[in-house]
Amino acid sequence: MFGPNGRFLHGVFHRWFREELLALLGRYGVETKVERGGRIFPASDDAADVVNALRRYLADQGVDLKTEVRVTGIALRDGRVAGIRTEAGLLPAGAVILATGGATWPATGSSGDGYPMAAALGHTVTKLRPALVPLVVAEIERAKSMQGVSLRNVRLTAFRLPAERIDPALTPAKDCGRGIDTKRRRGPVIESRMGEMLFTHFGIGGPITLLMSLSVVDALAEGPVGVSIDLKPALTRKSSGFASSGTSIISANGVSGASSPASSAQDDRTLCRDDRYSPERPGHQIAAGERERLLSLLKSLRFNIKGPLPLSSAIVTAGGVSLKEVDPRTMASRIVDGLFFCGEVLDLDADTGGYNLQAAFSTGYVAGEEAASFVQDFAEKS
To answer: Which candidate, 106, 107, 86, 105, places its Cα nearest to that of 96?
Structure first.
């Protein structure tokens, strides 16, 4: 769920996790509900309720909020934090928490400003990449012809080679890859997941595509990546029904008896369209070679990945301030006294489903507690 850097979060999760967050929101009137997959949402389905609750909490704690003031950097004196530089002048501070978020969705104010601020103070910023992002395919016309088709219960597998060289026999029977079970990967397999996905005008998207996207992005830096979609993971040659002599083999949305899992039976777009096959053509008139081709399409519909959508279109930013330079117990900088970090500015990213939000809340709580203690301790020693 939290990838290879997830161990960094063990300490903060032990101090402040889901139950503590829900209790805080509950104190400020936010009722919650649990939906599919254990995901928790405001009962009102309005994210503004969470923002308003946090604002009331800040007001109760006497926090002075300054908005619409652009921060340009962090000021130091004698190797420790002295305040923050803004376009309106210096704001003195005994401690600073860098909570600027990632570089995705800049319209929300998360434009990546925190990375150069941290780098200017000597921190290492690992390469930024888009995570939880749709993927662009080379076969753009094929993708466009299926735009809007939603697939469920399919298996998407990414390989470290061009699509035409993929061997479907290497497709894992179970999920494997980043943050799951790497032992199931064989040969060129990067990652494999079963679930829901969809076709777009530029390529592929949907839950399992997003979950696999970072692994694909990283693999693309080293060479070509092809993906294979098993539209009917439970289908075998024996169970396909292709030998049936009295039924039509093609339907409007795929293969009769092995139909593609499109979102609507009325959708006139087909995943296996071919002018040689008529929807009314009986199965016994389909030659063995033609059956094999149809079955191959169902079991391994392939695309070459050109790349992800831009970082600004991703849900999460992968990369960020190196965790080696941050104390996991306190979120404090190991380089600058009085500097703390939290949230997506750190080299942390997780699966979709609220995990990234929980990481931000938990690291934010610990950073806040520890920054306050740092200021108090410094004042007592002065």
So the answer is: 86
The C-alpha atoms of residue 129 and residue 354 are separated, in whole angstroms, by 19
320 CA to centre of own chain: 15
Q: How far apart are CA 301 and CA 198, in angstroms?
A: 13
Query: Which tokens is 230 given?
Result: 């098993």
Task: Compute, in degrees rounded to 10, the torsion defined by CA atoms 56, 57, 62, 65.
Answer: -70
Q: Which two tokens stand for residue 358?
A: 């929980």
Helices (H), the chain: 10-15, 18-27, 48-60, 114-120, 140-145, 207-220, 288-299, 355-381
41, exposed or middle or buried, with CB in 10 Å at 0-12, 13-18, 19+? middle
**CA dihedral in degrees (262, 264, 268, 274; nearest 10)?**
20
Query: In this structure, what token pair is assigned to residue 235?
Result: 């289908």
**pTM of the predicted model over 0.90:** no
- pLDDT recorded at residue 248: 42
- 362 CB-near residues (< 8 Å, 6+ apart): 9, 12, 13, 15, 16, 17, 21
Query: How many Å apart are CA 106 and CA 310, to the nearest integer?
Result: 12
- Residue-wise pLDDT for 320-356, tens only, equals 999 999 999 999 999 999 999 999 999 999 998 899 9
Amino acid identity of residue 141, one-letter, is E
Q: How far is CA 224 from CA 81, 188, 264, in A?
A: 45, 11, 33
**Beta-sheet strands, E only, within the chain:** 32-34, 40-42, 71-77, 80-86, 89-92, 96-98, 125-131, 135-137, 150-159, 189-199, 203-205, 226-230, 250-251, 254-255, 258-259, 301-308, 316-321, 339-341
Amino acid at residue number 174: K
Question: Rounded to whole angstroms, how far apart are CA atoms 241 and 23?
Answer: 55
Which of 126-140, 200-214, 266-280, 368-382 shows the lowest mean pLDDT across its residues?
Answer: 266-280
- Which residues have CB under 8 Å from 98's CB, separation 6+? 74, 114, 117, 118, 321, 339, 340, 341, 342, 345
CB burial of 85-113 (b: ≥16 within 10 Å; e: otherwise) equals beeeeeeebbbbbbbbbbbbbeeeebbbb
How is the beta sheet containing 89-92 ordered, strand by strand?
Answer: 71-77, 80-86, 89-92
Contact 184, 176 (CB under 8 A): yes
